Amino acid sequence: MEILRTENLVKTYGEGENSFNAVDDISISVNKGEFVAIVGASGSGKSTLMHLLGGVDRPTSGKIIIDGQEINSMNNDKLAIFRRRQIGIVYQFYNLIPILTAEENITLPLDLDGQKPDPERLEKILSSLGLTHRRNNLPNQLSGGQQQRVSIGRALISNPALMLADEPTGNLDSKATEDIMSILKMTNKQFKQTIIMITHNLEIAKEADRIIRIQDGKILEEV
Questions:
Q1: What is the pTM of this model?
Q2: What would the pLDDT profile of 125-159 be if each residue is shown by its tens digit?
Q3: Considering the domain boundaries, does residue 153 fall inside one?
């Protein structure tokens, strides 16, 4: 079952002779439960593509359809609600709120949406991420790897249609990188979570089910 589709996606920056396509006619399809890695060097367009898929930026042309809904046709208010409920994002630098505990950071998307977390799902996430005994710790009391686990939990809590991971191991040492990749694969299998991971590291990308390589804003190959 298809969960994401882009059609002839283009993102242009600049005007006239100074314009360029950071994303240039990209069409991809991702099925529910897939773990896909998008790989490219710095400047390849992979981060721009992630911002488009996450609804953070809007395309110049083309379509983005997530769980049957064309997100680029939504107004800003509707898109903000859709993003909060249907797209979970894991950032390289965690983006945790320093005055909130690990548990409060995880449940933040639901709090912002006026919802209460399902206690059973919250406990399952905390346990699966090895955070049960750290639930009341503030971010500055956690290691980098533990903070990234909190970020993954926050992305999972609303049971989104799509999880986007932007260089999720880019700020971690080799041991923490192995742990986070194991957790992402566990999340994909145990929670049946669809994941799209952006990375410049081909070795990390090989952990995914499928690799899409991009260069100069275009798809170079899919393996």
A1: 0.92
A2: 999 999 999 999 999 999 999 999 999 999 999 99
A3: yes
Q: Tell which residue, 186, 202, 185, 194, has the closest CA to residue 160.
A: 194
If 0-12 CB within 10 Å is exposed, 13-18 middle and 19+ buried, where does residue 214 land? buried
- Whole-angstrom Cα Rg for the chain: 17
Q: Output the six-digit token pair for 158.
A: 């609303």
Q: DSSP E strands: which ranges in the chain?
A: 2-13, 20-26, 29-31, 35-39, 61-66, 69-70, 87-90, 162-166, 195-199, 210-215, 218-222
- Within a domain: 141: yes
* Mode of pairing for the β-strands spanning 218-222 and 69-70: unpaired
Q: How far is CA 215 from the centre of its chain?
A: 20
Distances (CA, A) of 64 to 58, 67, 87: 10, 10, 13
Tokens of 21: 């396509």
For residue 93, is it within any domain?
yes
User: Two tokens at 127?
Assistant: 């346990």
- Distance of alpha carbon 57 from alpha carbon 90, whole angstroms: 17
**How far out from the chain centre does Cα 35 lie?**
11
Alpha-carbon distance 118 to 124, whole Å?
10
Both tokens assigned to 129: 């991420």
Report the candidate in 61, 49, 60 with the shortest Cα–Cα distance to residue 4.
49
CATH number of residue 197's parent domain = 3.40.50.300
Per-residue model confidence as pLDDT tens digits over 75-116: 999 999 999 999 999 988 889 999 999 999 999 999 999 999
Contacts of 141 by beta carbon, 8 Å cutoff, 6+ apart = 134
